[in-house]
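Researcher: Quick sanity check before group meeting.
Model: Go ahead. Protein one:
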Amino acid sequence: MTPRMYPYAVLSSGFLLLSTGLSSCALLSMVSSGGPETPRTLGARMEKHTEVLQKDIGPRNASQPKSMEAAAKYIAENFSDMGYAVTMQPISGGNAEKGAAIYNILVYKPGLYSNNQSIVVGANYDSSGRRNNGSGTALLLETARVLKDIPTNHNIYFVAYANGAEPTGKSISSGACVHAGSLSGNIGATNILGMINLEPQKLDAGGERKQTGPESTREDVLFMTTSHGRKFAGQCAAPFAKSWEQAPTTLQREPSALTGNDRHYAALGIPTVSCRCRYPVTDAHTEEYVQALTDMIHQVADNDAPEPAKNAGRDEKAS
């Protein structure tokens, strides 16, 4: 079933902020596609996401807008089936008049006591050769799924970016650049506590899930950040290490050396962490990696939030 586009509407106090920055967006009211049921295990869902994006849909970039549209629909339907309200943010590079617009796909998880402070979790859904293979999007979808009904103090934006895997020119905008600019201009960069960029993993050629042997280690996770993001990287590494049982290696880079979605947020002074894992999506470690990511995002979205009791006291004085 083809999704219908509706005028953007304010769904909550958090979306009121978003609507100002994304005034050209439309809310996508999604329904289930009626296809095969969602696989029950996390590993099977990860494999299905990458299979659909990489093989069923194929190459996805601004020169193939129909493939981008098909990928966006698949991602939006998955978010919608989880219970999220989906927002489509137009990105230059497509042709909206000919029905070939290109979009970021956004969902918003409101916090409890955040005072509009937010974190961003994002990944590309377009492709560029073997590197951008849909596994970053799979990570994004599955972390959003696990966190859907877990309360967090701060707001979380989950964003699937268009035009992130290929060079941008005068007629093509980076999805991460557009989203970073809209958020920072709307709520202020200081209210964005940090951005977590989910890098793609490898795909196994054989397609068979590997079993973890007793000699295997879990050292091959890399966090990349800038000097400005070192504190945020530490906040991410601590809860990640509890689930992963080993602290990830953290590489500090100059902002000019960043080449992923994180560079657009770092340019605005927002702390960033880019997460890279060498294990293929078919490896048994991937389920543990997703669990570590969700524990990390959950903890970071609770950091430095006002206590409910203090909020209640302030409200009483104000009244």
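Researcher: Fine. The other one?
Model: Protein two, sequence then structure:
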Amino acid sequence: MNTLKKLSCLLTVMFMFSVFLSCSDNDDSMEQQITPSEVLSSTPWETTAAKDKNGNQVALTDASVAGFVGFAYFKTDGTFAIYNLSDVLRSRGTWTVDPQGKTRTITSLNPDGTSVFTRTVDILVLNANEFTYRIHTNPNDPSVYYDIIHTKTAHAEPANGQLTLASTPWETTGAKDKNGSPVALTDASVAGFVGYSYFKANGTFTIYGLNDVLRSQGNWSISPDGTKRTITALDANGNVLFTRVVDILTLNSSEFTYRIIPDAGNPSVYYDIIHSKVNHQEP
């Protein structure tokens, strides 16, 4: 009888141990399961190499691949931002990876949410350390392609406000003088700075009056420390009309305020131009 009891206890212990091992294996399996989308969004990526259709190395400065080079941030909310290797914002928008991890699609967006382009590429490698895709640069000749190789990086996304400025249209909603007193937007001192602004991820901008008439266009940038915004207005032929550098006072998801000093020789006279996030489509 004692022998049977001992055998029964031994079998019970062995069964429980096997169940424990089975659960542990399942837990490990579940922990190891990660979707292709989760892999892509798990780290920043840096373009570190490119190859042509023959497997030959292509310089990252080569015109054939330069437009695909930079630091890429694919975020878990389905948005992305790509900067060049000098940390200048190049494009922003939305992204997806198919469930099998075979293709990645990005849609680059303007500040007003309209699409600039949609690009789908074949994924060749996607793991914790490497992301490589194949880009066909000639839609009429699929035999021409380049493999763009990215490596996991610890490079932090620039935090100087470029992405914030490019993520929405801005409407001038207020102005103040040096004493903090409100100034009417029709006042001659500030009227030239009033309108709807669209700072695009490719470094270009357009500004329209509140009547939707184009007022200026050209190139923009933000200083690395996020304290100054520069615009260079261009005419239709690309000639420089003026360059204006202003101090950024506030730049967040709902407000963009800068300080303009009309006369550099008299910095005690200035105006703060206040912009609010707006859902206004570019004319």
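Researcher: One line on it for the slide.
Model: The two ends are 92 Å apart (CA to CA).
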